[in-house]
Amino acid sequence: MKKLTRSRSSRMLFGVCGGIAEYFNIDPTFVRLGFVICGFWGFGLLAYIVLWLITPDQPQL
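^ that's the sequence the OP posted. Answer follows.
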């Protein structure tokens, strides 16, 4: 079973967008662009911070 975690390899700030991209098997750039677009409506930054706080870090191998 897949588990949503913050990425360690595809990280720009905290790995939230990279983790979402790895979970859905898409390019992290699209997820980052989605957060930027949502940021114009005011909930992109809030969603990012909430996901950063509740999403666990990817385990080290």
